[in-house]
Design goal:
The protein is mostly helical. It has 29 helices and 7 strands. The strands form 2 sheets. It has a 5-stranded mixed beta sheet with strand order 4-3-5-7-6, with helices on both faces. A two-stranded antiparallel sheet has the order 1-2. Strand 1 and strand 2 form a beta hairpin. Helix 3 packs across helix 5, helix 19 packs across helix 20 and helix 21 runs parallel beside helix 24. It is globular. The termini are far apart.
């Protein structure tokens, strides 16, 4: 800490051509958090892992990012990240860890990029602290340890940031084009989410470049045009291809990439109207949330049943807790309720907000004395960039109708940058007794410690009182001592400042390790003592901290000792049945489970995990294969293209991963895509493409006619031929499942 105010050019020059020894342990920490035990996740997010399995089989599947080897339907995102995952699987073999590896490396790369970006302007200590803050932001490793897209998205946007900064420093237009083209590449990872950084790019380039307004407008217009061209290139190619020559665009209602980009993956995220019934009708998420919250939660095993009433009481109690801004704190998938204090509510604050008060004080210090008309220093210009990244994204997450906790990784770079740059700036003001500015450091420490106590308090039953009291007491003591010693300059004051930073980073570090300690959820990644649940809330809002947030889900034909009352999957208390996982949608008032949430995702040390495999199968909602069913279908296949058809991707994914054979998800991810018609299905059956159908009661939105026709024109296969003998009731993802056979001449 005593070196923080040494931002002299000599230090930067002396370290320019050699490894920063302080950076090495930071990178090692990031590597540990992002890589350790990823090899235990066998399926990762099964929805996306099945797509990689399919993409490995042909260039056609690779280009379109087909969910199934038969090229029937795509996944619900653009292909770039999955191209990278497929290449990784091609090089290292098809494993859960090989599809996770690119994201884990991207998480480490983001730490290094942030160090480079911050160090050059704010000094080496600012760069170190920014990199460390990025590495220890809990949601960063939680996402990077999965095959979800967001870690790679953030890395790509930081690469674009590096290019933009270089464009300003070198005054070369080529780097501007490269920066905006890279945002176009990011669009082909997660569509409109990539555009959240555009305000920062425009504002920074306008303020930082010393060229005429005419050139600024011309350059930015040209760069934007290039970005848009790169963004829509793949979409235009796909939408221009005849529908019968490519897979259906999953989770769209019109078989269009552009509709998916600007609808489901775009505006609907803000409005929350993500529930599509298949007929084109959309229901507001709030209405669905009210419906879901009125339902009774079900659990999937005897241990859960024994504590069911207690969990319901806890859930009901937690719903009454008020956030700082008022309202229920759970919200849809524990993302809180919209409002100015949403990022401080449960479920979000412990993922991203640990350092937010310190960041606010840092912003005040960094912009203190700045005049609107300038001139601006390089530090002020780059601070403006990070602020223009932070504020719009924070506003979006404060008002958005539908998103998942792991999307919050978009806030990690600006928060980490301000944490590093602000620590150096506030320390310098404190040491120089710079009037009211000298109080910003102890004020930032005190308020940040207070927030961290607030964040941890719902987890007292999991982590104990000691760490909560320790952070609170040490934060108050160190802030007060620093305030009292403002007029003294000695080594003790330096050590106190360093100790304060350690205290503020201690609990984020622990939270960042929770996916390793407690197990993670590859479908809905989050950090915290209940990270394996994928619901990211405190224990009082989770059904069981040792279980997946979506219980009672079994693979087709798997055995179960549960009563029939557990056949019905219910959403967690306070969540909306309109808030879907990737590609998900509501169906007939029932919440669709995630394409990858574990059907029995328990902690690594659980008996269930040990008995089934040494590897976790937590990523797939049905991340199990009923071998008896598979044997029956394989034995009785007479040349059909598809092993079997089912309503949605959740039943299909494990079989695609296991066998590499085509399995038809008739209605796409959640069963609501209007892909199939009765006449089209008849033609497929007559051509000998499919004859077996597994129906589990899910996915009827948009295909009820098809399902009715299947039931009316098929013969039911006796469960004794394909169902585990120990099971008295076949459970699908939601309700009883039945296997049918249809042959037409």
């Amino acid at each position: 800490m005593k070196h923080m105010n040494s931002e002299v050019k000599e230090e930067r020059t002396s370290n320019k051509n050699r490894i920063d020894l302080f950076l090495v342990p930071i990178v090692l920490i990031a590597a540990f958090l992002n890589l350790f035990k990823i090899w235990t996740d066998e399926y990762a997010n099964a929805y996306y892992t099945a797509a990689v399995k399919s993409m490995l089989q042909s260039f056609h599947n690779f280009f379109y990012a087909s969910f199934d080897p038969g090229g029937y339907v795509t996944i619900d995102k653009p292909p770039v990240v999955f191209w990278i995952q497929t290449i990784s699987a091609k090089i290292f073999g098809f494993h859960g860890w090989s599809v996770i590896l690119p994201q884990a490396l991207a998480g480490i790369g983001s730490v290094l990029l942030l160090y480079v970006l911050v160090k050059r302007t704010f000094g080496v200590w600012a760069g170190r602290l920014a990199a460390l803050a990025m590495a220890l932001t809990p949601i960063v490793p939680a996402v990077s340890r999965t095959n979800n897209i967001d870690s790679m998205l953030v890395f790509t946007l930081l690469v674009a940031t590096w290019m933009l900064f270089r464009a300003v420093r070198t005054a070369k237009f080529g780097w501007v084009l490269a920066a905006f083209a890279m945002i176009g590449v990011a669009f082909n990872m997660k569509m409109l989410q990539a555009y959240m950084v555009l305000p920062a790019f425009y504002v920074f380039y306008v303020v930082a470049t010393k060229i005429t307004w005419k050139k600024k407008i011309a350059f930015l217009t040209t760069a934007t045009a290039l970005m848009l061209a790169v963004s829509v290139l793949w979409a235009v190619v796909v939408d221009s291809t005849s529908a019968d020559k490519r897979p259906y665009m999953g989770s769209s209602q019109t078989n269009s990439v552009l509709e998916l980009a600007f609808g489901y993956n775009g505006i609907n995220r803000l409005t929350g109207n993500t529930s599509v019934t298949g007929s084109g009708h959309k229901q507001p998420a709030q209405t669905e949330q009210q419906t879901a919250s009125s339902e009774t939660k079900q659990t999937s095993n005897s241990s859960a049943d024994s504590s069911q009433s207690s969990n319901q009481r806890n859930s009901s109690s937690s719903q009454k807790m008020q956030a700082p801004g008022g309202g229920n704190q759970n919200g849809m998938f524990n993302t809180g309720n919209p409002g100015p204090f949403r990022l401080f509510q449960k479920g979000l604050s412990d993922q991203i907000s640990w350092l937010l008060p310190f960041v606010i004080f840092s912003i005040v210090g960094l912009f203190a004395g700045v005049k609107f008309k300038g001139p601006y220093t390089t530090k002020q210009k780059e601070s403006l960039f990070w602020l223009a990244w932070l504020l719009p994204v924070a506003v979006f997450f404060s008002i958005a109708g539908f998103f998942h906790q792991y999307y919050l990784i978009m806030l990690a770079p600006p928060i980490a940058a301000f944490a590093g740059a602000g620590a150096v700036a506030l320390w310098s003001m404190y040491k120089q007794h710079n009037g009211w500015k000298s109080w910003l450091l102890p004020g930032g420490i005190l308020t940040t410690a207070a927030l961290q106590v607030y964040i941890m308090s719902p987890y007292v039953s999991s982590i104990g009182v000691a760490p909560i009291a320790g952070v609170g007491a040490l934060g108050v003591i160190l802030a007060l001592v620093l305030a009292v010693r403002k007029q003294r300059k000695n080594s003790l004051t330096n050590y106190l400042g360093a100790a304060a930073m350690v205290v503020l980073l201690a609990m984020p570090a622990y939270w960042a390790m929770t996916p390793i300690i407690y197990g993670g959820n590859s479908m809905l990644p989050s950090a915290g003592p209940d990270s394996s649940s994928g619901m990211g809330g405190p224990p009082s809002t989770a059904t069981n901290s040792k279980q997946s947030g979506f219980n009672g889900m079994q693979p087709p034909g798997s055995s179960s000792g549960n009563s029939s009352s557990n056949n019905q999957m219910q959403p967690p208390s306070g969540s909306s049945n309109g808030g879907q996982m990737p590609g998900g949608s509501s169906n007939n008032g029932q919440m669709q489970p995630p394409s990858g949430s574990s059907n029995n995702s328990q902690m690594p040390n659980s008996s269930s995990s040990k008995s089934s495999s040494s590897k976790r199968k937590s990523g797939g909602m049905n991340a199990e294969v009923n071998q008896k069913l598979l044997n029956y279908l394989t034995k009785n296949n007479t040349g059909e293209k598809y092993l079997f058809a089912t309503t949605d991707s959740t039943s299909a994914a494990p079989y695609i991963i296991k066998t590499g054979k085509p399995v038809m998800a008739m209605g796409g991810f959640s069963g609501s895509d209007p892909i199939l018609t009765v006449s089209k299905l008849k033609a497929m059956i007559k051509k000998g493409e499919v004859k077996y159908f597994y129906l589990s009661g899910m996915g009827k939105g948009g295909q009820s006619d098809v399902i009715t026709w299947i039931k009316d024109n098929s013969k039911e296969i006796p469960s004794s031929k394909w169902q585990s003998a120990s099971s008295s009731a076949q459970q699908g993802p939601s309700g009883n499942g039945t296997l049918y056979e249809i042959t037409l001449k």
